[in-house]
Amino acid sequence: MSFLLGLDIGTSGVKALLMKDTGEVAGSATVEYPLYSPRPGWTEQNPEDMWQASVEAVRKVLAKCGIKGREVKGVGLSGQMHSSVFLDEAYQVIRPAILWNDTRTSGQCRAIQEALDPEMLFSEVCNPVLEGFTLPKVVWLRDNEPDNYARLRWLVLPKDYVRFRLTGELGMEVSDAAGMLMMNIRERKWSLPVLEGLGISPEILPPIIQSAEVAGRITPEVAELTGLAAGTPVVGGGADNACGAVGSGVVKEGRGMISLGTSGVVLAHLTKPRLVRTGTVHMFNSCVPNEFYMMGVTLSAGLSLSWFKEILGAAGASYDELTSWADDSPAGSRGVLFLPYLTGERTPHGDGNARGSFVGLSSANSRGDLVRAVLEGVAFALRDSVELLRSAGWNGTALRGIGGGLKSALWKEIIASVTGLAVQRLNIDEGPAFGAAILAGVGAEVFSSIPEASDAVVRVVDSVDPNPAWQKSYEALYQVYSGLYPALKASFHRLVALQ
């Protein structure tokens, strides 16, 4: 038996996962690293921390599973999207990486939109200009740290940086490159009209590589550090959500995925690009060659429930206890609606100044009503993304579910009833690291293709269908919910300004 290694370079740490060549997970290990916030709205990490954590995680998972490095036939990586790693001519890190959730670049976003023809920009990158993407970070570096910008020779993303440290080969994998606002999505090449229009040299960008393509091999030096065998192939890998799709079998037209963690993602696989110009829904390249995926993001999904748990003074209560209180409340939470915009919102509003709200509170409401309102509010926010996917022509009938929030049977039934889509449980829920291991298997020729590999190891275990009675109530409530943000938007912005 042989093994495949997946490394997920996340926001809080690195997860290393070993998968048997038959598809079963042998084990995993996680090593955390710090996140820095030197100013309000800024989030940064040290790329060296990412590398050291990767080395430690690999050593730990090999030891935990009792596996020799020579038994690992391939390595794949996934990673946080958009975050910028700036390198100089000698491949040394210039400054801490600016992360995907950093909001310092509002001015640069406006400048990009003013400098470029909007039709050309959208035609090239197929996505709205938002603070989290990579291009505004490059412009920010030029505007605010000219000495560092003058040193800039290479721009990469976190997982591509770690792969460079593993192999000594620099490349940019396509599904991650798609989230930079610097690549022509449909042609899978760096966008010269965008880069030249902003005066940015395309020479700072490495070659674009495919997700399951062998991009390099473990060097002898890294073999000594990690315990892996020198010469082990390392594939391009994928963006975290793209690898999550591979790891949940969302690799064919009509399939969709919901990920319910701190944030919430609704993702649909597409064989052809379909553009949506409203609602800040994203379209990126899939790990499946020449195919795509579209996704919407609600920023405070599981975060809303954990926040409310603390606010309620129920820090000692389990999430099962919390949702049991919600179980005593009827669909509609006795007239209470919750807007889950605790950290602003991505889809559909693209508004960093949006704020969370309870609407419709009365003295008759119980704590269970409020907990259920939080669960329902997140579900309504996820439906916003579903509606945008439908407007683009996606006609799926189910969402494959991953993430800790979907361990709640109640929340799954609420989401199914709000969206009108069955929520399916899978045999494996290991996140992007599992998808990265599948990609490694394709590159190492353990599997013949990404769809074949994904379908060989991932299967639907059971499904929660919409509750017909709840669905009728939620349809009416969704119409009310949809009118709340437009009614409150000006007030949200005024409140933020007053702070």
What does this structure look like?
The protein contains 17 helices and 24 strands. The protein is of the alpha+beta class and 499 residues long. The strands form eight sheets. The chain has a seven-stranded mixed β-sheet, sandwiched between helices. It has a five-stranded mixed β-sheet with strand order 3-2-1-5-15, sandwiched between helices. Strands 4-7 form a two-stranded antiparallel sheet. Strand 10 and strand 11 (189-190) form a beta hairpin. Helix 11 runs antiparallel to helix 13 (367-391) and helix 13 (367-391) crosses helix 14 (409-419). The longest helix has 31 residues, at 468-498. The mean pLDDT is 95.
Briefly characterize the structure.
The protein has 499 residues and is of the alpha+beta class. The protein contains 17 helices and 24 strands.
- What best-fitting shape do the alpha-carbon axes yield? globular
Q: How much of the polypeptide forms β-strand, as a percent range?
A: 15-25%
Cα gyration radius (Å): 22 Å
Mean pLDDT: 95
Strands across the major sheet, in which order? 18-19-17-16-22-23-24
The helix fraction, in percent, is 25-40%
Quantity of strands, as a count:
24
Pick out its properties.
499 residues; alpha+beta; 39% helix
Question: What topology emerges from the helices and strands here?
Answer:
Layout (H helix, E strand, L loop, with lengths): L2 E7 L3 E8 L4 E8 L11 E2 L1 H19 L6 E8 L5 E3 L9 E2 L7 H10 L2 H8 L8 H11 L1 H6 L2 E3 L1 H10 L4 E2 H4 L5 E2 L4 E2 L1 H6 L10 E2 L4 E4 L2 H7 L6 E3 L2 E2 H8 L8 E5 L3 E7 L11 E4 L6 E7 L3 H10 L7 H9 L9 E3 L17 E3 L7 H25 L6 E5 L6 H11 L2 E5 L5 H12 L6 H8 L2 E5 L3 H31 L1
Helix pairs in contact: 1-6, 2-4, 10-15, 11-13, 12-13, 13-14, 14-17
